[in-house]
Amino acid sequence: MRSVTSLGGALALSLSSHLLLLCCLSPPVLASPVYTAEYTALGCPNSTTPIATETEQLDAITDFANTLYIQKQTTAAFDKYVATHLINHASEVPGDGAALALKTVGGLLAASTVTLEQIFVGQDRAVTFFKGTTSEGSVAAIDMFRMSGTCLIEHW
């Protein structure tokens, strides 16, 4: 079941019956043009836009997450939404750039089964919560992104 909720300035997408708790977000605002220069400098794909509402960002991250985690079309997801010079902070990816992240993520997802649990956006940030099963066992994890419009430009 898909439901969209506005909570304290963030839009939340609940994909299951799990409770989603959000805190500490300010009133709703449009995505800021502050990141427009980064949009260009970081090499955002032409399929994205430099300025977007939170609803447009929610649609973009939902499509990205479904394409990446569920359909396992990693290249298609990255090509459509991820900046070429993605800024990465995740320890499992040893550096910046979409190509390096794609190589790492593709390997991790290839041998796993993933259930996408929740997605939310607010203040040019997006968070996906998912559960997965690999040969090593079960895992629950999140990915957090900073967005410029509908482009994913930074990852934690």
Quick summary:
The protein has 156 residues and is an alpha+beta fold. It has helices at residues 36-41, 54-70, 74-81, 98-110, and strands at 3-7, 10-14, 82-88, 113-122, 125-134, 137-148, 151-155.
Question: What is the gyration radius calculated from CA atoms?
Answer: 15 Å
Distance between the termini: 27 Å
* Strand residues, percent: 25-35%
Helix content: 25-40%
- Structural class from helices and strands? alpha+beta
Tell me the major beta sheet.
7 strands, mixed
- Low-pLDDT windows of residues: 5-9, 16-31
The number of helical elements comes to 4
Order of the strands making up the biggest sheet: 1-2-4-5-6-7-3
Rounded average pLDDT: 81
**Beta strands, count:** 7
Q: Based on CA inertia axes, which overall geometry fits?
A: globular
Summarize the helix and strand pattern as letters.
EEHHHEHEEEE
